[in-house]
Amino acid sequence: MSLVQIVIALLLAFIGMVVLAPIYISLLGRLGFGKKIRADGPEAHLRKAGTPTMGGALMVGVVLFLAMALRIEDAATLTPMLTLMGVGILGAIDDFVNVRTGIGMRGRWKLVWQTAVAILAAFYIQRHFDITGINVPGLGEIVIGPLLFVIFVAFVIVGTSNAVNLTDGLDGLAGGVLIFSFVAYLLISLVAIDGVKLAQPNIAIFCALVIGALVGFLWFNVHPAQIIMGDSGALSLGATLAVVATVNGQLPLLAVIGIVFFAVIMSVVIQVASYRLRGRRIFRMAPLQHHFELIGWAEEKITIRFWIVAALAGLLGFSIFLGSVNGI
Questions:
Q1: 310 near 176, Cβ under 8 Å?
Q2: CA-based diameter of the chain, in Å?
Q3: What is the pTM of this model?
Q4: Torsion 74-143-150-190 (CA) sign
Q5: 3-state SS, residue 216
Q6: Residue among 109, 123, 194 at smallest CA distance from 153
Q7: How far apart are CA 243 and CA 169, in angstroms?
Q8: 122-175: pLDDT as tens digits
Q9: Residue 194 banded pLDDT, cuts 50, 70, 90
Q10: Residues of 82-91 as b/e, b for ≥16 C-beta within 10 angstroms?
Q11: For the chain, domain boundaries
Q12: Averaged pLDDT score across all residues of the chain
């Protein structure tokens, strides 16, 4: 594998999205696949009603097609590819139901589907790579056994999937943050120690395909968005990010690299807990990005500031990784 292959993969995915997206957006418009906006959200979002949704389905299709065309399917990439497809189907169904009803699938059914895919992914990774521990930077491997490993990984996959979905609330927000997260894990997958790769090299190409597709998607998703990612993209890419982190052996670093997603989902947890226990809200509205909207930040400012935090988090996570493998 060479850096040229990674760049080519990224460019192919980007070009594929830029070429296909206008056709896809037009098709969604003719089919009436316009986003239904919840009335209890920020009032400014009502103007986004009718914007074509399910943009994530195109990204999933482009990434999977190119991954197969480039023949990068191996033990390491098979799990993230199947996760992307499996959760992508769930998200597409949810997007379809939202378009038709304005509500979407019931949360319990989405959770069951996500959990099933997550358990299968975690089980396959554990059995194929015979992993029984978690690599914690600075501490090394902590052995927890096969069962706890599967439970922990499945929990993180489901949590990350929903965290990215909650972050997908502003034009370009989730897509940009995901790019920096996948860049960090692409770099991790390239690091060699004593000439031995720490991860399967095809993971780097897979990450490049995802990054290229996301950059191409942002071409049309930045404010004002011409298309919305939808659950087909947010749920599937969130789950895939966690699987890539697991295959790379650096799942705990996701707490740093994906700090924006963690902050967003925790804002919801804190808001709900505070209201139920104290009858008071901590934030003006959750998830976190809507709180900043209601205190007067412009949508573009929130998005770019979250991108900056995500870029710094990715750099910090990669630096922690380098420090741990080199004993710094």
A1: yes
A2: 58
A3: 0.93
A4: negative
A5: helix
A6: 123
A7: 23
A8: 999 999 888 888 988 878 889 999 999 999 999 999 999 999 999 998 999 999
A9: very low
A10: bbbbbbbbbb
A11: 3-252
A12: 90
